[in-house]
Amino acid sequence: MKIYNTLTKSKEEFEPVNPPQVTFYMCGPTVYDLFHIGNGRSFVMSDMFRKYLIYKGYNVKFVMNLTDIDDKIIKRSNEINTDAKEFAEKIIKEFFTDIERLKVKKADVYPKATEHINEIIDLIKILQEKDYAYEVDGDVFYNVSKFIGYGKLSGKKIDDLESGARIEINEIKKNPLDFALWKNAKEGEPFWDSPWGKGRPGWHIECSAMSMKHLGETIDIHAGGNDLIFPHHENEIAQSEGANGKQFVRYWMHFGFLNIKDEKMSKSLGNFFTAREVTKKHSPESIRMLFAQTHYRGPLNFSEDLLDSAAKGLEKLNNFYELLISAIEKSDETPKPEVDIEEFRKKFEDALDDDFNTPQGVAIIFDFIKEINKILAENTPINRNFLLDVKSFVDSTAEILGILKTSEDAGSKGIEDQLINLLINLRTKAKADKNFSLADEIRDEMIKLGITLRDSKEGTTYKLN
Ligand code: AMP
Ligand code: ZN
Predict the structure, then answer these.
(1) What band does 452 get if pLDDT is binned at 50, 70 and 90?
(2) Most Cβ neighbours (<10 Å): which of 54, 187, 303, 417?
(3) CB environment 152-187: b (16+ within 10 A), e (fewer)
(4) Could you count the other beta carbons within 10 Å of the beta carbon of residue 262?
(5) Burial class, 247, CB count within 10 angstroms (exposed 0-12 / middle 13-18 / buried 19+)
(6) All domains of the chain, ordered by start, with CATH?
(7) For ligand 1, is residue 29 a contact (CB within 6 Å)?
(8) CA angle, corner 222, sides to 244 and 176, nearest 5?
């Protein structure tokens, strides 16, 4: 399998340090608000890649950090007079809700910055001992000019960066590019005790400390959106390699932006849709189908129309799957049709082995469906083992991409829907019995659970918030 490595700017054969073990670190969210569907694209693409590695027989340890202390979290929590930790915990819960709605498999570990303060402090101490870091009045900075390879990931040169950064006025830093490892606590901010006084960690050091703790000094894959290449990942390299004197990451994987009209979807530009609102209108399968149809490194313009056409494509897959299930029920021991399923599987794997070319992979699944549909259309009993092999091909490939509604998804949604309707019926009955206080109580409790009811002449419908 080949993947494109941002560090070497080339497609490389994938060789983990300790096969079949693969250590995979993905930069997770800063938990100050619901994440947008642009972040969602990066989360989903890392999920697909992880699932492909599992499909290929690797034993993947997948870690995604949660940045639960930062300026934005402090600002937001102050605005609503809540403790920063409590506020971050609330957003983390929302994060998990949305991750599940996008059918993203949970990480093996979700380390939180605030739970790794000791590891972070220890790492900064090592950097200070090795003269990569210096303290100025309670702040600790990384001295980029000390790290010889600085710029190797982003291809940026310190001299060019310095001239570009001249406008930044920060008297206390030796070099404008130096970045904070530890920040002296300001009035009203959360803090931890440290050898440099009360303060909190910088963002970049969190990922170096947490990846080292959970995955070791050299990790196989480190991923994130393109926006993280510089400075975040460049700084992670400087910190981890500075401290350990070892290669930090073997393969750097970066995801292209989800754009709106060719501009990066972002909170600061205001051109975003939250994953929450998008998953209310569109199925996770169609969102994932849209993402899978674009190469992970390329940009993708987001639009409702594209999501609708992804959903249309999926209809073909779902109709096919229904036909397949009923054909299995009617199958017998007649000779196998002459379709080489293994040939399709090989083509699918070749596509994904070539720098995870999911658009090509999707095309192969659809070519396959077209071929099998011809056989199903004959409407005569088909060889059972052949059909089971067809099903196993579709199940396993669609499972990686997450584009097939599984019976498990349908089942869990079904029971949820049935329970809600049961409550609606009980409320209607309570109203008919003039037990209005019970009817109101049912409605209010449902609202608390995020279920809004709408009464009309035709009856009561519900909406999930
Ligand atoms: P953040 O919470 O901003 O640190 O972002 C979480 C993840 O989403 C990171 O891996 C970012 O690189 C990624 N990301 C942010 N914006 C976009 C976007 N518009 N398209 C794709 N990925 C993004
Ligand atoms: Zn990170």
Answers:
(1) confident
(2) 54
(3) ebbebeeeebeeeeeeeeeeebebbbbbbbbbbbee
(4) 8
(5) middle
(6) 2-275 (3.40.50.620), 313-401 (1.20.120.640), 411-464 (no CATH)
(7) yes
(8) 65
Mutate to test the pocket of ligand 1, among 25, 26, 39, 287 (most ligand atoms within 8 A of CB): 39
Rounded to two decimals, the pTM is 0.88
Residues in the chain: 465
> In the predicted model, what is the mean pLDDT of residues 211-233?
98
Q: For residue range 71-128, what is the model confidence (pLDDT) as tens digits?
A: 999 999 999 999 999 999 999 999 999 999 999 999 999 999 999 999 999 999 999 9
**What value does the mean pLDDT of the chain take?**
94
Query: What backbone phi and psi angles, to 5 degrees, belong to 457?
Result: -60, -35
Q: How far apart are the first and last CA of the chain?
A: 42
Interatomic CA distance for residues 88 and 427, integer angstroms: 36
CA–centroid distance, 276 to ligand 1, in Å, is 16
Residue 258 CB–ligand 1 contact under 6 Å: yes
